[in-house]
Write a structure and sequence with these properties.
Largest sheet: 5 strands, parallel
Bound molecules: 1,3,4-trihydroxy-5-OXO-cyclohexanecarboxylic acid
Shape: globular
CATH superfamily: Dehydroquinase, class II
Helix content: 25-40%
Number of domains: 1
Structural class: alpha/beta
Radius of gyration: 14 Å
Number of strands: 5
CATH topology: Rossmann fold
């Protein structure tokens, strides 16, 4: 079913270095490749996506605040801010939009510091460990959420 909805796909710090950064963990795809794959899936699903990346916590917070009136849902890989940022958690709460959290790696198989996420508690659900395919799964989930709500 094609639905007309706009989804903010947010990427946090160091995700601009995909392809170069620890490829044994994050794979060889670049962020541009990932965006292209997301755009293709979004078109199939009838979603419009706004795909962004920032290394700055405050910029991510501002974009989430703006999403409240500009988008219908948020897919977020907050990178390391996942494990530290109460500010991003608060912004996601005030946005009052469905949130799908995604991580390329399986954060639970990694160092203990990565096992806690401030985002999971305010998200509809979380997908991790499937590499770039996780973003496509997140968009599938978002389409279901927006179609049902
Ligand atoms: C990540 C996992 C985080 O722990 C890490 O800090 C990242 C990427 C992932 O996609 O697997 O930057 O969010």
């Amino acid at each position: 079913m094609a639905i007309d909805a706009s989804v903010l796909v947010l990427n946090g710090p160091n995700l601009n270095m995909l392809g170069v950064r620890e490829p044994h963990i994050y794979g060889s795809l670049t962020l541009d490749d990932l965006e292209a794959a997301c755009q293709e899936r979004a078109e199939q699903l009838g979603l419009t996506i706004d795909f962004r990346q920032s290394n700055h916590e405050g910029e991510l917070v501002t974009w989430i605040q703006q999403a409240r009136t500009e988008h219908d849902g948020i897919v977020i890989n907050a990178g390391a801010y996942t494990h530290t940022s109460v500010a991003i958690m608060d912004a996601l709460i005030l946005a009052e939009l469905p949130v799908v959290e995604v991580h390329l790696s399986n954060i639970f198989k990694r160092e203990p510091v990565r096992h806690h996420s401030y985002i999971t508690g305010v998200a509809k659900g979380m997908i991790c460990g499937f590499g770039p395919h996780g973003y496509l799964l997140a968009l599938d989930a978002m389409q279901r959420i927006l179609g049902r709500d």
